[in-house]
Every structure is written in structure tokens, then in C-alpha cells.
Amino acid sequence: QLHSDQDKGDGSLKYILSGDGAGDLFIINENTGDIQATKRLDREEKPVYILRAQAINRRTGRPVEPESEFIIKIHDINDNEPMFTKDVYNASIPEMSDVGTFVVQVTATDADDPTYGNSAKVVYSILQGQPYFSVESETGIIKTALLNMDRENREQYQVVIQAKDMGGQMGGLSGTTTVNITLTDVNDNPPRFPQSTYQFRAPESMPPDSPVGRIKANDADVDENAEIEYSITEGDGYDMFGITTDKDTQEGIITVKKALDFENKNLYILKVEATNTHVDPRFLYLGPFKDSATVRIQVEDVDEPPVFSRPAYIMEVKEDVPINSVIGTVTAQDPDAAKNPVKYSVDRHTDMDRVFNINSGNGSIFTSKPLDRETLLWHNITVIAAEINNPKQSSRVPVFIKVLDVNDNAPEFAMFYETFVCENAKAEQLIQTLSAVDKDDSYSGHQFSFSLAPEAASSSNFTLQDNRDNTAGIFTRKTRYNRHEISTYFLPVVISDNDYPIQSSTETVTIRVCACDHRGKMLSCNAEALIHPTGLSTGALIAILLCIIILLITVVLFAALRRQRKKEPLIISKEDIRDNIVSYNDEGGGEEDTQAFDIGTLRNPEAIDDNKLRRDIVPETLFMPRRTATARDNTDVRDFINQRLKENDTDPTAPPYDSLATYAYEGNGSVAESLSSLESVTTDGDQDYDYLSDWGPRFKKLADMYGAMDSDKDS
């Protein structure tokens, strides 16, 4: 309560309050000066409030005394329980840890005043998690309390820790937290095979590196502590099989290292060992961290293809061997117990020219064509061996055939030699050096000998000197030569080798006589082709090209003129009464125009059909066809044609101009009567065509043709 000495109790003074919480948390009675709190105070929110109070004249509002300041201090009570810094703690320790191993430290705080009583003094205790763990009451450190806790038995633990104030005394407030403790793995368990013996089967045709089967040793540990390495320690299949580890499944994969053979061995026994790769020395006392098992592998028999005695064959044959000569033999046999017979053949994709063949029964290879080492030195063929009872079971082997050289080629010049000699040459002067080559192979090196042919040795104007180094020199025998007398000399040279049998050839050296200067340089001779290339000049080539173009244009114009002449009408004169075809260059009625003409009418004019109409056109006005007078057999052909033309010109039902009118009427003036093949088929009797030979040379061809037919019939 505030009270001013100036307050006489008559209500003239008024008390006002200001400062922390004035008017909200604290209020003052303006008449009596009593200060009251409007709500419950919390020391943890604000422990001290500073207020200012003053008395003023109610009527004037002026202070009657100076302002007074006072402090309100809140005394603490135990109204806050301890609070942990985390709602849930997570911790982990290795399994098999010693007692007292630090796990984690929990911390709880109390908002009460630590300087006032025991309201903020916190004590820790464990409510859940015994007997495995314990907690220090003062520090909140959690430790292990049980020896040899095994992760494989239990991995997760949940511990509840309590923090209580008032030093843990009765009436104190408390809070709890949960601690999740996980035991981490250590390598304290060795691998163990679930069974002592494993059985597998493997066909003998299984290729190397193929898997036979899988085995697995169990390890209760996890991650790297459960990693296992498998190995084959002993057994009769130590070198035939291998084992690797599948890193994902920790299984041992047994694989084939070498080809299996049922006939040779059909059962293998292996001892496989599984070992941990990461061993913890602290737990070696628990025993060896490895285990072993026995693996039995049974090899199964399969039908195998024949097997050659060698992976490849190399044979040699001389190039001069006769056809059907045996050069070698390949051998293959069925590895199965049945020992099926084998037949041999040559893969023709490797011997397209069919140079070699093979005996299908015994595998002997022989030549079927002549060989030539100079053409092809090596022949690489493939031989196929297949079972007779089951041809699908086959195998292949390469055969390399080397063709050995024989001396079957004569030496020859290394190039074509054409040289010259000067007219003023001196005797014993070198004019050309010769060399030779030989297609044959010489193991000791070629050795050629040169000499002049016998027919030129004595009468030649030149001499030949063998240098004994596979070269020879041509020398002049006389002092001067005259190119006007003899312009060219042909010198035959015999070249021989030293192999057996000796081969020799005669080559010719062309020597031209030329005029030379005093230094021996050629000036002119009839051998200008040696130094001046022949050819046509550019002007000559252009002239030849122009002549060819003009010739082509002439041919084209001539062909065009002939084509234009062919288009001229055949009937030039009205006096020409021979049978002709008049071309109007108009399109006809096509296949539908079957009534444009009737050839039978010309043969028999009286057989005309009065009621036949055109089917390809519709006439504008339908006229009845007029019946014309029939022509007698003695009617002249010209009168007959003119009469028919006049009738067609005036007849509206006559065929149009795009129709072809054929008149097969010949008249009565022919001694041979009608030559038409249309009427010839109507005669049944044989005819005599001897009269055709009396008609002259124009009918000679017909006389020969029909006369020959009569002679055939007679014969």
C-alpha cells in the first residue's frame, strides 16, 4: 500500500502507478493506494518488476509529492519439472562390450531458481533398461551393466531415464526421456556350412569357366564381418575346378577350369573351405573363423564330336607332284565309349578351287589339281570330321599346306633390254650390262650363267662376258658400225641357272646402230623411239574428233531422210492397180470394228448381208443398204475396183476412212489362178508347182520352196 503524508482522507488526492506491468499485471487503488496483482506471477518469466508511484491533486492534476520507485521481487517455488534436451536419444555400442562402457549422456534442465532451495537440483535414475544398462545419478551418463551382450541374440534396447528435482526427495517434480540403444556387429561368429557334403553333376561337354553349382556357408554376423572367401584346399579335382565368391550373396560358385572327359574320369571329390576375410583378433579365442565341406562332382557322359590328334596340321608338298598324290593324313576319333566311325571331308569354303581332296575313310589328303609355288605358296584348308551315325557331331581342324619349290622356271632378263651402239664405237667397248631373275626359290642363292646362243657365238658382231655375279656385259667386237647397212642387231643370249634340273632360256637384246658425237652421246638413229615418245599432236586429235562428229551428223540426216520417204503414199498414180495399203494416219475402230469390211464378200460378192450394220458407230440417219449388182467372174479388175470405190463414196452406210478395206479379188487373167493362202486351204488335192520355174528369176525362190515341198512328199 502506498500512502502520502499529504493525504487527509478527503479524496482530494489520486494515486497513479507506472512501470513494468502497471495497469496490466499490477493495478493500484487511486483512492487508497493499495497495489494488487491481477494474475499469477511466474518467476521463470520475469523475476523482478520495477514500478513507479505518485500522488497527484485530483482537481489540478499536479503532483503533490515527488515520484517514488519501488521493486517487486518474485520468490521462486518448485513449479517446474526437469526437462531433457531431447525427447528421444539414439546411441549404439559394439556388442560384447565390457561392463561400464560409455553409451551416451543425457541432460535435463530445471527452470526453477538453482540458488533458492533444491528446486533446481536434478538427480538421474533408470526406470527401464536394467540389468543391461545403468546411469550415473549426477551426470546422466549411461553405461553398460551386463557382460557379453550379443547382437545376434538381441540387437535393440529401449532405456527410460528419469530426471527428478529437489535432489530426488519426495515431492520433487520429474521428467523422463527414452534412449534407443543399438548393438553394432563385431566379427564374433565364424562361418559354418549347413551341411558337410554337397553333390553336383556336370556334363563333360561343359566349356571352361562354366558354373557347376553354388555352396554357401552361413555367418550370423553382418556386413563386412560376414564376408567369406571360398577356396579349394585339396581333392583330386584341384586343378580341374575353381571357386569364386559372389559378393552379393556370399555364395561360393564352383566353375570348370579345364575340359572334362567322362571316359577319362567321371568323379571328382573336392574339399572347399570358407574363411572370414575380416577377423577380429579380440575374438580369436572363440575358435577358428573358417569351416570346410566336401563337394562331390559327378561327370555325365554326352555324345561328343570327334577329336583330332592335333590342334592343327602342317604339311609340305613339292609343286611338281602328280595329281592324286597323297601329301599327308589327319586323324580323328570318337572320344565316346561307343567309338563311332568317323568320315572326313574338306570345307570347300576354304578350298574354292578344289585343289585338294581327302579320303573320307582314312583322312589322307591328296592333290586334285596341279600346284604352282610361284602362284600360291601356302594353302590353308579346313578338314571336317563327323560321326557317320550322327553327322551333327562334327569338329574342324586347320591344315596348313606349304608348296615346296622345284626348279621349274627358267631364268629370264630382269627387264627388256634395248640399247644402242655408236657408229664410231671402238672394239671391246661395253655397251650394256645384263641381269636376270628367276621365279624359283633358291636356298643357297641364285647363280646364273650367261652366254651367246650357238648360232650367234661365232658370227656375232658383239661379245658377251659373264661377270660371275649374276650379271653380264655386252661388248663390241669390231671398231666401226654402219647404220645404213645394218640398223638393228638382235643378239640372242642364253641364261642358265645352277639348280637341278638346270633350266635355261634364250632372251634377245635389241641393239640399234646410231650416230654419236665424239663423247659417245647419241645424236640420231632409227631408234628414236628410245628417247622420243610417239604420239599425236593436239591439232591432229582435234581434226580427228571433228571428222567423227561430221560423220555422225551425216548418218543422222541420212536416216531422217529415209524415214521421211517411207511416209510418202504408196499409190502415186491412179493407173497403178496393184494391191496397196493406203495409210490415212487416222485411228481405226479397234477390235470392236469387226464389220468394217468382210473379206468373204470380195471372194463371193453375192454373199453380202443386207442387214449388217456397223456396231462401233451410230449413224445419224439410218439408210437401208443398197443392193449392188454382183460382178461377174469375167469382170475386169480395174472396173471392179472403180465400181466398188464409186459405191462406197455414195453409200452413207459405207465404212469410214479410218477403216481398212481389203480387196482380195485378183481377176481372171492368172494362169496359176489365185495365189492367196486364204483360198489355198479350201483345196483338198495336191497342186503341181513346176510351172513356177517357168516364170523367170523373180519366182525362183517360190519355185525352190514349193518344188522342195513336192520332193519331200514324194520321198
From TrEMBL:
<dbReference type="InterPro" id="IPR027397">
    <property type="entry name" value="Catenin-bd_sf"/>
</dbReference>
<dbReference type="GO" id="GO:0099560">
    <property type="term" value="P:synaptic membrane adhesion"/>
</dbReference>
<dbReference type="GO" id="GO:0007043">
    <property type="term" value="P:cell-cell junction assembly"/>
</dbReference>
<dbReference type="InterPro" id="IPR020894">
    <property type="entry name" value="Cadherin_CS"/>
</dbReference>
<keyword id="KW-0325">Glycoprotein</keyword>
<dbReference type="InterPro" id="IPR000233">
    <property type="entry name" value="Cadherin_Y-type_LIR"/>
</dbReference>
<dbReference type="GO" id="GO:0005509">
    <property type="term" value="F:calcium ion binding"/>
</dbReference>
<keyword id="KW-0732">Signal</keyword>
<protein>
    <recommendedName>
        <fullName>Cadherin-6</fullName>
    </recommendedName>
</protein>
<dbReference type="GO" id="GO:0005912">
    <property type="term" value="C:adherens junction"/>
</dbReference>
<dbReference type="InterPro" id="IPR039808">
    <property type="entry name" value="Cadherin"/>
</dbReference>
<keyword id="KW-0479">Metal-binding</keyword>
<dbReference type="GO" id="GO:0016342">
    <property type="term" value="C:catenin complex"/>
</dbReference>
<dbReference type="GO" id="GO:0045296">
    <property type="term" value="F:cadherin binding"/>
</dbReference>
<keyword id="KW-0165">Cleavage on pair of basic residues</keyword>
<feature type="domain" description="Cadherin">
    <location>
        <begin position="194"/>
        <end position="308"/>
    </location>
</feature>
<comment type="function">
    <text>Cadherins are calcium-dependent cell adhesion proteins. They preferentially interact with themselves in a homophilic manner in connecting cells; cadherins may thus contribute to the sorting of heterogeneous cell types.</text>
</comment>
<feature type="domain" description="Cadherin">
    <location>
        <begin position="413"/>
        <end position="523"/>
    </location>
</feature>
<feature type="domain" description="Cadherin">
    <location>
        <begin position="4"/>
        <end position="84"/>
    </location>
</feature>
<dbReference type="Pfam" id="PF00028">
    <property type="entry name" value="Cadherin"/>
</dbReference>
<dbReference type="GO" id="GO:0044331">
    <property type="term" value="P:cell-cell adhesion mediated by cadherin"/>
</dbReference>
<dbReference type="GO" id="GO:0008013">
    <property type="term" value="F:beta-catenin binding"/>
</dbReference>
<keyword id="KW-1003">Cell membrane</keyword>
<dbReference type="InterPro" id="IPR002126">
    <property type="entry name" value="Cadherin-like_dom"/>
</dbReference>
<feature type="domain" description="Cadherin">
    <location>
        <begin position="309"/>
        <end position="413"/>
    </location>
</feature>
<feature type="domain" description="Cadherin">
    <location>
        <begin position="85"/>
        <end position="193"/>
    </location>
</feature>
<keyword id="KW-0472">Membrane</keyword>
<keyword id="KW-1133">Transmembrane helix</keyword>
<feature type="transmembrane region" description="Helical">
    <location>
        <begin position="540"/>
        <end position="561"/>
    </location>
</feature>
<keyword id="KW-0106">Calcium</keyword>
<dbReference type="GO" id="GO:0016339">
    <property type="term" value="P:calcium-dependent cell-cell adhesion via plasma membrane cell adhesion molecules"/>
</dbReference>
<dbReference type="GO" id="GO:0016477">
    <property type="term" value="P:cell migration"/>
</dbReference>
<keyword id="KW-0130">Cell adhesion</keyword>
<dbReference type="InterPro" id="IPR015919">
    <property type="entry name" value="Cadherin-like_sf"/>
</dbReference>
<dbReference type="Pfam" id="PF01049">
    <property type="entry name" value="CADH_Y-type_LIR"/>
</dbReference>
<keyword id="KW-0812">Transmembrane</keyword>
<keyword id="KW-0677">Repeat</keyword>
<dbReference type="GO" id="GO:0000902">
    <property type="term" value="P:cell morphogenesis"/>
</dbReference>
<feature type="region of interest" description="Disordered">
    <location>
        <begin position="187"/>
        <end position="216"/>
    </location>
</feature>
<dbReference type="GO" id="GO:0007156">
    <property type="term" value="P:homophilic cell adhesion via plasma membrane adhesion molecules"/>
</dbReference>
<dbReference type="GO" id="GO:0034332">
    <property type="term" value="P:adherens junction organization"/>
</dbReference>
